[in-house]
C-alpha cells in the first residue's frame, strides 16, 4: 500500500526555510539536470527534513539490512551552511568527498551510504542506493515517482 504523501514529513522535524525557486534553478544549472516534479512537490510541502520514517524494500541485501534501505530524511534545497541541515545543493561536495559517481543528486545519506537521483542513463533519473564503504550500487526504482510508490512505513518492515 502506497504511503500518504500528504502525511510524509515528521511533524516534530524542525521546519526549514520554504523552497525558493532560485535554489531550484541554481541546482539544476549547477548539475545540468531537471528535478522530478514529484520531488519538487514534496519540497514545496516542506523543504527537507525528517520523514515519518520509511523504508524501501530491496531484492538483495545491503549493508543496512537484508531486505530494505532506510528513508528517514530527505534533503531540502537550502543554502549550505557549516552547521546547517544537509541540502541537495551539497551534492557536488558530497560527490567529491565520498567518491560518488558523476551525474547524481544526493537525496539522503550519511556519508557511508546515499540514496540518489541517478542521471547517468538520461534526463529522467532513476533512484539508486550507493554504499561508499562496501562499494555497492543497487538500483532501487526506475523513477522518483516509482520510488515514492515503493516506500513503506519503516515499522511495517519485519525484524531481521
UniProtKB/TrEMBL annotation:
Superkingdom of origin organism: Bacteria
SMART domains: SMI1_KNR4 (SM00860)
Domain Knr4/Smi1-like: start-end pairs: 18-150
Gene3D superfamilies per UniProt: SMI1/KNR4-like (3.40.1580.10)
Protein name, entry field: Knr4/Smi1-like domain-containing protein
Amino acid at each position: 500500500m502506497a504511503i500518504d504523501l500528504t502525511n510524509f514529513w515528521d511533524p516534530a522535524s524542525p521546519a526549514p526555510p520554504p523552497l525558493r525557486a532560485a535554489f531550484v534553478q541554481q541546482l539544476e544549472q549547477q548539475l545540468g539536470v531537471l528535478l522530478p516534479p514529484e520531488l519538487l512537490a514534496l519540497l514545496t510541502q516542506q523543504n527537507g527534513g525528517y520523514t515519518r520514517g520509511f523504508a524501501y524494500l530491496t531484492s538483495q541485501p545491503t549493508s543496512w539490512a537484508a531486505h530494505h534501505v532506510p528513508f528517514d530524511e530527505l534533503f531540502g534545497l537550502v543554502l549550505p551552511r557549516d552547521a546547517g541541515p544537509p541540502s541537495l545543493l551539497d551534492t557536488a561536495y558530497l560527490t567529491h568527498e565520498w567518491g560518488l559517481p558523476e551525474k547524481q543528486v544526493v537525496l539522503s545519506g550519511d556519508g557511508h551510504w546515499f540514496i540518489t537521483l541517478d542521471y547517468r542513463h538520461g534526463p529522467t533519473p532513476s533512484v539508486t542506493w550507493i554504499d561508499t564503504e562496501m562499494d555497492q550500487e543497487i538500483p532501487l526504482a526506475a523513477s522518483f515517482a516509482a520510488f515514492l510508490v515503493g516506500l513503506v512505513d519503516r515499522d511495517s518492515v519485519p525484524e531481521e
